[in-house]
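BUG: 3D viewer hangs when loading the predicted structure for this chain

Environment: internal workstation, default settings.
Expected: structure renders.
Actual: progress bar stalls at 90%.

Input used:
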Amino acid sequence: MRAIIVRDRDAGVGGLSLSDMPYPHAAENDVIVRVHAAGFTPGELDWPGTWCDRAGRDRTPSVPGHELSGVVAELGYGTTGLTVGQRVFGLADWTRNGSLAEYAAVEARNLAPLPADVDHTVAAALPISGLTAWQGLFDHARLTTGQTVLIHGAAGGVGSIAVQLAHERGARVIGTGRATDRDTALRLGSDAFLDLQADRLEDVGEVDVVFDVIGGEILDRSAALVRAGGTLVTIAGPPTVRPTDGRAVFFVVEPDRARLTDLAHRLRDGRLKPIIGAVRPLPEAPTAFAPDRRTPGKTIIQIP
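Structure tokens produced before the viewer hung:
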């Protein structure tokens, strides 16, 4: 099969190349997915799991990418709940070869059925962003109707989903980003928008929940905005400044088949719309990682 591989940790984006790889092995409880569309996270070349397996052993050459949508091609021993030929989408494992390939071996529990009327390209934009947004807002911050949530990066991959979910839940949503993000954030459901380059973050006032995807100074300054009993949630890194009388949570997204199924229904019903910035073929995936080729929204790789 053809796949995007990376061999040298020090080479960065320049070390990505399109190569031939062996067809993946279906271990117990695995599914082999014929990948139709895949997503990736630009920073994943810095993740330990890109280079080592669960035991810490070098696993290069490795295939990056952790979001995929496709069709079940093969079932491993003991795999239940899915069938050959079924449309699926979900998360490829963090410490195994990923989704930027014609075929990928994935634990069955990381995949969910994909309705026939949801396009693979759209579905591939949802697993990480959708699960991260849901888990941050509802599992960790316990956002409820009538509360106020500040969502940083409101027009980004995770932030745009978080805005839509929080708005649907009945929360008051304040989105942040650059001036060019304002219209997108408001269209998705933000009640107000703060330009992080021109407006004072402190003018937001107290909020029940801060959902952060940026980190750094923005994360530190956001802690003071959390009202008593509120929650600061971030995926950028462990917070060094915590709310005076509230919680601070750093988390890494976890697979969840039931939640993926729910998100797929929202896609089908038009209640959730991922922002797709570019769709590119597999040979162009290495250049899509490059910082100077970033586009607004999620870049999806199509694999014909």
